[in-house]
Amino acid sequence: MLPGPLLLTGGREPARASLREAGATAASARRGIVLLLGLVAAAGFLCEGAAYSWAPLHAIRELHADPATAALAYTVFAASLTAGRLVGDRVRRRLGPVRTIALAGAIAVCGYLIVLLAPSLPVGGLPCDYAGWGVTGVGLATVVPGIFSAVGELDQAVGRAMSLVATCAYAGELGGPAVIGPVAGATSLRIALLVPTVLTVLITIVGPVAVRRATRPAGPKEAFVTARPDAGCAARATAARTAAQTTAARATAKQGTVEESAVEECRHEG
User: Where residue 216 falls among pLDDT bands split at 50, 70, 90?
Assistant: First the structure.
């Protein structure tokens, strides 16, 4: 009596083990994608926070601007960031999410390089500094919103992934001053701003990879593996209900045919 159940279930066990292994692989891949998205979001918010916190101080220390004039650097950056976010969705629809974040990172790199080179100019250093912060704001405008949109394209557990990516992003914003401040105190603010400059390069390189992996459509096998565990039971239950309804309809039709035949026979006999 024992070999029977074993023979009946033995064929299913390798398939179940294969599905479990494929599910574990898919879950691991999703975690890697979410961590990449969180890293890019943290870099984006850290670069934004560096501009908000240090742009006026950079103009005062490195370009010897008075405080009233130096405050314009903050205004230029905030205005360009806001304008970029107002048109960011339109740009993303036109270029696609991958090309948009790659272009945004490249623009942000150019902006920070302009800011770093402004004190070396013999004349026009302060206007160049303002222009650099404006370019940086345009570049960073679509980075974090693009990452959040990519999280929404994940196949499942979007809420959990969004909470993790948002936590990473705000951790980057809060941790920026803790990194840039000590570096600026030990060296100079100009050297400290190399930190967000390097992070914009990271956004340019890693951002498109993370967004591409998050927004690519799942294949048939991957979609099956990432489906809800009870999807098969629900499908079988629906099929069973449909079969029962079909059988009942056929039985009713057959009964009606028998009754019509009996009536016809009675008419002939009459």
Answer: confident
Q: Tell me how far CA of residue 192 lies from CA of 75, 144, 243, 265, in angstroms.
A: 21, 22, 71, 102
Name residue, tokens 């603010």: 189
CA distance 5 to 22: 26
- Residue 154 clears pLDDT 90, i.e. is over it: no
Gyration radius from the chain CA atoms? 31
Cβ-in-10-Å burial (0-12, 13-18, 19+) of 190 comes to middle
In the prediction, which pLDDT does 166 show?
Answer: 94
Model-wide pTM > 0.85: no
Q: Tell me how long the chain is.
A: 270
Residue 204 contacts by C-beta under 8 Å, 6 or more apart in sequence?
Answer: 102, 105, 106, 108, 109
